[in-house]
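B., you asked whether I could sanity-check this one before it goes into the benchmark set. Here's the sequence:
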Amino acid sequence: MNARRTPWWHAAIALVLGLGVGAGAAVLGESSGTTLIGTPWFVPVVLGAIGVVALVLALNVHKYAATDPKKRPKTFVNPAVAFNTLVLCKSMVLAGAALAGWYGGQIIPTLAHIEGLFYGQAVLECAVSAAVCLADMVIGFVGEWLCQLPPTEGPENPKVKGRQRQGTLAGAAAKTVR
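And here's what the prediction gave me:
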């Protein structure tokens, strides 16, 4: 199986879409009189905890994968856990970007009313949540990198390809000399 890293522009698109939807929700909430802005304080706490768990899991996968097989500790990293860690990190990139845009988008239209107690509190909540979501996005990118396996000594390894190329060139040179 070959998993590709999440391109940076996927996160940029998710951030811009989240920004637009968040700003639209804030404007709609202002015009309809409903409160669609803000977030409970446990949301950034939970998102931060998920980011820390994902980073710890990715570090464990990286420690196991980057260590020489002969020097690895007796611990074993379950391949399913390693794969789920990679999926978690990939999803954190996109979800972190989209949610950062959502919370950041809610801040933009409410800045005009920040002197009000409710709006000031909502802007603070959204700013903290957006910062945690951006941190989760960065942790997702780092976690993807940490879950990357080193090349094996199989046919796709650059060293093996170089040796094959050298062998082919040496064989071709020997045939032309005869």
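One thing to flag: Helices lie at 8-32, 42-66, 79-110, 117-146, 158-177. Otherwise nothing jumped out at me.
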